[in-house]
Design brief:
Number of domains: 2
Largest sheet: 2 strands, parallel
CATH class of the largest domain: Mainly Alpha
Structural class: mainly alpha
Shape: globular
CATH superfamily of the largest domain: GntR ligand-binding domain-like
CATH architecture of the largest domain: Up-down Bundle
Number of helices: 11
Strand order of the largest sheet: 1-4
Strand content: 5-15%
Length: 236
């Protein structure tokens, strides 16, 4: 992270740190329940303890991190109700964005195609962590079709929470391949500007994905051992 030499930089530092940590959550680097070591994270990111704490408080407001007295900060563990609400939000946001894909600039549509291809490449390498990250990028690109900075920010938060839910998938190599294929179908429709068909395909896709994640939560039984401490390695 950049230094904090001026007041202007200091004022923006918590937001920058929060964005960095949110991205690490979206990439699957911070597991649900994992304790966030303030000392290790602050040293790895090169920021003061106060700046780090303010960033973590921002993530608490977003529902990604929790704080407990005498225990500090940890990555939030989602509930079944959280998962249902996430997918309800996604159907509304992504569905509307896909519906207006014909109005989106070519670069926005190509971003959807590129993200779908990345998923194909990661699956071919049997890199299922990489596949999950590619899926996150794909759905961020779908939201980007709307051309709204506010919706982009909302989607980033939704996807960070969703990645926490993905940790419940015990066998991603079995669960994820059909969704990699469906990403490609949606991407082709987006590229063609077939908004109504893209929306229908995407909503059906999200319905199926929600069932898969909820099934994984059911197998987990709503319990999870205490998570590891998250420090310098995950901050990179």
């Amino acid at each position: 992270m950049d230094g904090e030499a001026t007041g202007a930089v200091e004022a923006s530092a918590p937001d920058r740190v929060a964005r960095h940590l949110r991205a690490r959550i979206t990439e699957g680097r911070f597991p649900p329940g994992g304790h966030l070591s303030e000392g290790a994270l602050g040293q790895a990111l090169g920021v003061s303890r106060n700046t780090l704490r303010e960033a973590l408080r921002l993530l608490c407001h977003e529902g990604l991190v929790v704080h407990e007295l005498h225990r500090g900060f940890s990555v939030r563990e989602l509930t079944v109700d959280d998962v249902v609400d996430l997918y309800r939000s996604r159907r509304l946001l992504e569905g509307a964005a896909a519906r207006q894909c014909a109005e989106a600039p070519p670069a926005a549509r190509l971003a959807v195609v590129d993200a779908a291809r990345l998923g194909d490449d990661e699956a071919a390498r049997d890199d299922w962590e990489g596949v999950q990250t590619a899926i996150m990028r794909f759905h961020q690109a779908v939201a980007g079709l709307a051309g709204s900075r506010r919706l982009d920010e909302s989607m980033r938060q939704i996807l960070a929470e969703l990645r926490l839910a993905f940790h419940a998938l015990a066998d991603p190599d079995r669960v994820l391949p059909p969704f990699v294929d469906r990403n490609r179908v949606v991407a082709d429709l987006v590229l063609a500007g077939a908004g109504a068909r893209a929306e229908r395909e995407l909503v059906a896709y999200l319905d199926e994905a929600e069932r898969a994640v909820l099934t994984a939560f059911g197998r987990r039984g709503g319990t999870r051992p205490v998570g590891p401490t998250v420090g310098a390695d995950a901050a990179g």
